[in-house]
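Retro notes, item 3 of 5
We never archived the inputs for the zinc ion complex last cycle. Fixing that now. Sequence and ligand:
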Amino acid sequence: MGLAEASEALDSLSAAIKDVGVNDTVTDRLGRISPVGSHAVGAVNLDHIVSNKAPQLSGVDLSVPSGQTSGSFKVSDKWRRLTGERVATTKPVSQKFFKGLREYILKTHGIEVVVGDHGGGRTQHEQDELYAQGRTKKGPIVTKTRRSKHIHGHAIDIVADPTGKDKKSNAIVAAAMRKYAKMHSKSFKTRFLGKWDANHVEIF
Ligand SMILES: [Zn+2]
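Structure as it came back at the time:
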């Protein structure tokens, strides 16, 4: 949608809201509230308003769809099982770190973390295949090394959303991982990589 279209949609919504005397604010998917007509269109999903030229206020939903908390990935039993299997391929010290971190992020942020594909222990063959990706094979580059700590079970990739769509939640998890590691530096020696692999942690 273009900016002009979005702006027009906001104005028509504003008029409709005034008709029924509702407060002149909109709440976006993140719960941020902004005045109608402030043109903060980037944060507000207006698609359904445009497709519905004469919006009926009772049917207009600017909040988060029901059953969805903050746009986060919904962890299914399948993902729980996969996560458990992947963590089980790492060293006991890594497993212990993951279990503690998982509890911590659940408690502090209400986010249930998971381990994505190849995010646990890896065989050398698996690492070589990943290294080939984006070099001699199709796909994006996903690793910088053939000597990953994943091979020895001392690294885990921990995310909120393994599809990568919910960048915000994944960034929250990356920050929480660092905080947790600092809090428990007596129990775990950890190493983090740069922003390019923010959800990777090495545990010793
Ligand atoms: Zn990794």
